[in-house]
Specification:
The protein has helices at 2-14, 28-43, 75-83, 103-108, 138-148, 155-168, 179-190, 195-203, 208-219, 236-241, 287-292, 312-330; strands at 17-21, 47-52, 70-72, 87-91, 112-117, 128-131, 222-224, 229-234, 264-271, 274-281, 297-298, 302-308. By secondary structure, it is α/β, with parallel strands linked by helices. It has two domains: 2-202, inorganic pyrophosphatase (n-terminal core) (Alpha-Beta Complex), CATH 3.90.1640.10; 208-330, Diaminopimelate Epimerase, Chain A, domain 1. The strands form two sheets. The chain has a six-stranded parallel sheet with strand order 3-2-1-4-5-6, sandwiched between helices. Strands 7-8-9-10-12-11 form a six-stranded mixed sheet, with helices on both faces.
Length: 332
C-alpha cells in the first residue's frame, strides 16, 4: 500500500487541477473522504473541485465550511472541468457506473484516474488504484494517504475523516473496528473532534417526518426464515404521505438486526423507476454475495442493490426466497 500511496503523492505534487467524485446517494464515508482530500489538496494550493451526481444529504451538511463547494453535476457547466482536469479521484466506489451522470465524461477525459476505495472487485478503469478491502472505510485510506504525505491532521481534516470512519463502521461496532483504527480515532479526537456532537448531528437531529416514516417501516416488519430473516419496506406513498425524502431512510435497515435471532436484515425502498435493497448480516451470511444475485454488491456484513425499472412488490418474494437459501447455506 505504501508504494501506491507514494505514487499518488507524486501525482499530487506534480499536478494542479483535481476533480473528486463519489457514488450516487453519497453517505458519510463518501462525503467525509471527499472533503478531507479536497481540503488537503487546497492546503497545498491545488485546484480541487468536488462534483457529485447526487446532492449532499442534509445530515452531513454540518461538516461543510463556508468556503466548501460540492457541485451537483450539470453537464453544460461542469463537463469542461472534468475534461481539462489533470487528475480525477473517484472515492468509495468500485464501479465507475456508480458515478451515474459523470461516468461517460470521466471515461472520455484524458486526466489520470485514481481510485481510493475499500470495496471488493473494483473495475479496472484507473491508472492508480488504492484499494484495500481490509480497511474499515475509504476515510481510513485517505487518512493513511495524508499521514504518508506528512500532512498536518487539523480539525478541518479530522472532522470529515472521523465522520467517514464512524459511519462506515456502524459507530465502531463492525468487524473491521481494530485496535489500530481506534488509535487513528484517538488522533482525530486530539485534533479537536467531539464525538457526541458528531453523533448528535448525524443520528439525533432527524425531522418529525423521518420519525413518522420510521413508524411506517416498523409497521411493515416481517420475520421469516424460522426467525432468522427480518425485512421492512417503504413505498413511494409512504414518502409522499409523510412528506419525507430518500435520505430520511438512512439507517433504517439496522433496526432489523436488533431483533433476537435475526441473522440477515433487509430493507426495501421504492423509487420512481425501481427500488433499492439494503442488506445486513449479523453472523456468517455474506450479504455482498447475496446482493450480487441482484446486481448489487458491498461488504460481507453490509451491502446494497439498486434495481431499476423493476416492481418492488413483484420482486420482493424472489429476494426473500434467495435470502433464506443463503441463510440455510451459510448458517452456523
Amino acid at each position: 500500500m505504501n508504494s501506491i500511496i507514494t505514487n499518488i503523492i507524486n501525482e499530487i505534487k506534480s499536478k494542479n487541477n483535481f476533480i473528486i467524485t463519489t457514488h450516487i446517494n453519497p453517505d458519510g464515508d463518501a462525503i467525509g473522504s471527499e472533503l478531507a482530500l479536497a481540503r488537503y489538496l487546497q492546503s497545498l494550493g491545488k485546484n480541487a473541485t468536488i462534483i457529485n451526481h447526487s446532492p449532499t444529504p442534509d445530515y452531513l451538511m454540518f461538516m461543510l465550511n463556508p468556503n466548501d463547494n460540492i457541485l451537483l453535476f450539470n453537464p453544460e457547466q461542469h463537463s469542461s472541468l472534468i475534461k481539462n482536469s489533470d487528475v480525477i479521484f473517484t472515492l468509495d466506489i468500485s464501479q465507475l457506473s456508480r458515478t451515474k451522470s459523470l461516468e461517460s465524461f470521466i471515461r472520455k477525459s484524458n486526466a489520470e484516474k485514481i481510485i481510493i476505495d475499500h470495496h471488493p472487485t473494483p473495475e479496472d478503469y484507473a491508472e492508480v488504484s488504492l484499494v484495500e478491502t481490509t480497511s474499515s472505510s475509504t476515510g481510513e485510506l485517505v487518512y493513511h494517504l495524508l499521514k504518508q504525505a506528512e500532512a498536518e491532521i487539523t480539525l478541518n481534516v479530522a472532522l470529515p475523516l472521523y465522520v467517514a470512519i464512524m459511519t462506515d463502521t456502524g459507530s465502531f461496532k463492525y468487524e473491521r473496528t481494530t485496535a489500530e483504527l481506534h488509535r487513528i480515532i484517538a488522533e482525530l479526537l486530539d485534533a479537536g473532534v467531539v464525538p457526541i456532537k458528531v453523533h448528535q448531528a448525524i443520528y439525533d437531529q432527524g425531522s418529525a417526518n423521518r420519525i413518522q416514516l420510521l413508524g411506517r417501516a416498523f409497521n411493515s416488519l416481517v420475520i421469516a426464515g424460522d426467525g432468522k430473516l427480518a425485512y421492512m419496506k417503504i413505498s413511494l406513498n409512504d414518502l409522499e404521505e409523510t412528506s419525507s425524502n430518500e435520505e430520511d431512510v438512512e439507517g433504517f435497515v439496522s433496526y432489523t438486526l436488533s431483533i433476537k435471532g435475526v441473522e440477515v436484515g433487509l430493507f426495501f425502498f421504492e423509487l420512481k423507476n425501481g427500488f433499492k435493497i439494503s442488506f445486513r448480516s449479523a453472523t456468517t451470511v455474506p450479504v455482498n454475495k447475496l446482493a450480487g444475485e441482484f446486481n448489487g454488491g458491498g461488504h460481507f456484513f453490509a451491502a446494497g442493490a439498486r434495481l431499476e425499472d423493476k416492481d418492488m412488490e413483484e420482486t420482493l418474494p424472489k429476494v426473500i426466497e434467495t435470502a433464506i437459501k443463503y441463510i440455510q447455506e451459510y448458517q452456523l
